[in-house]
Each structure stands twice: as C-alpha cells, then as structure tokens.
Amino acid sequence: MKVKKAVIPAAGFGTRFLPATKVVPKELLPIVDKPTIQYIMEEVASAGIEEVILITGREKGSIEDHFDTSTELENHLRKKKREDLLKIVQEISGMVTLVSVRQKEPLGLGHAILCARKIVGKDPFAVLLGDDLIDAKIPCIGQMMEVYQNMEGALLAIQKVPRQETHLYGIIKGKKVMDRVYSVEEMVEKPEKGKAPSNLAIIGRYILPPRIFDILERVKPDKRGEIQLTDGLRALNREVPIYGYEFIGDRYDAGDKLGYLQANLSFGLKHPEIGSKLKKYLMTLFPYP
Hints:
Layout: E1 5-10, E2 30-31, E3 34-35, H1 36-46, E4 51-56, H2 61-66, H3 71-79, H4 83-93, E5 97-102, H5 109-114, H6 117-120, E6 125-128, E7 132-135, H7 140-148, E8 154-160, E9 170-178, E10 181-189, E11 200-208, H8 211-218, H9 229-236, E12 242-246, E13 250-253, H10 257-270, H11 275-285
Parallel strand pairs: 1-4, 1-6, 4-5, 8-12
Antiparallel strand pairs: 2-3, 6-11, 7-13, 8-11, 9-10, 10-12
C-alpha cells in the first residue's frame, strides 16, 4: 500500500539551543540558507508523499508561515526583478499540502503522533523527526517506502553507530532477513553502557500502520508524564512484525550543537554559491602538514 501522508512532530521547546530558540523555533534554525525543517519537507516531497501533518505547539506559527504564500515578499521580489529568489520562495509554498495540528501539551513523541490520528486515517503513514537530517541521493523515506511495498507491519530507519555511543540511542536486537533489512526482536531505549544488544540505532524515520494509534492510546505515561513511541512500538511488535532498514546516506543530528555545526559544514561545502570558498577557508584553519 502506498504511503501518502507523513507526520512531522515539531512541538518541542528546543531547550538545547537556548537562548537562540527563545523566540525562534529550533525547526527554523538554518542549515546554510534553509531552515532545518525545509530539508525534511524536501525529503517528503521528493519521495512523492502528498500530504504532511505538522504537529506544532504554542508559538510555533512561524513554521506554518514559512510554508505559506508570502504575497508582500513575492511582490517585492518582482519589483526588484529577482526572479531567481522569487522562484525559490514560490517553490517553498507549493512543496506539499500542509495540515497543522496543535499538541496542546508536550506529552512526548507518542502523544504527538497520536494527535495526527483523525487526519492520517486508516492507511500506513510516515513519521519524520526534524532533528535527523539525512543527506542521500535517494531520499531516506523514499528508500523506506520502496522496501515497505514488500512487507506488512512497521519499518524503522536504522544505522550502525559506534559501540561507545549506543547509550545515546534506541537500539534494536534483530536478525538480518535480507540486504539492509532486519527483523526486530527487541528495542531498548538508551541502554546502559556495555549492555546494548547491538550497535543498530533507531533513527528518526518510521513507516507505521494505523494500528499504532490504538496502541498509543493505551500506553502508560513514563516518569516524566510522557507517552513514548518506543513503548508503543514494543506493544505493536507483539501484534505485527517490525523491521529495521539500514538506509543509505549521511545522517546529522541537527538537535545537537555539534551535529548542527557538522550539518552546516557538510551542506555548506556542497552549496554552489559558497562551497569552494568555504573549503578554502577551512584549509586555512587546518592546513596540510
């Protein structure tokens, strides 16, 4: 069954980037010259997904504004005869059909996804987390949609991480069933150092069946009062198979200061306008011996 809708949770406070995120949503922090969330939207659009359900919180209206038509700006660019910039602005507003849903309280990722239930309906859907930027020739969610055509249940994006970093991720225990695909037997959220069942980490891309909504409604909140998606996935795995797909591409954790800087450098080096200049500048900082 074709995946036609995607859910993008964007209701978090972005506390790791304070004070920058005091008035600017973390999703709008730029990677070179585009907001982080625009890269996620471009991935969705490139994969052929028709509708995005954006889960927002208080004071996140500027995210919706970014993907809306900006008449005054477009008229200004026309007057200045900046057709190049006008095209860029117009492409943003025409990228996808966007529906916004308010998560009234920050009650966890599982709850954020549950907020999309009425709009998603009864078909499988994608979930993309804005903190995970994935640079790939074929969009990561597009790769997953291709794999998902031949299976039932749920599909998670996974990536091998250094063993010493497994405590920072949700980790799967699984059996390889085909090239780059694992049958998930167990999921451990941020295991203690040295106790991870593997080094296959869950990354922020999912394709989920609508059955997950019924399960998330029954999941008990954790100690912080939040409904965790991982708890829902464990329960789902008792009813339907869950698979992990080791995607092809480079992933950057844009929710982490170092990862955010790494993403800016990597995308900056590929930027047609500044790439060569940035490379020359970096060479002055780190000259060859």
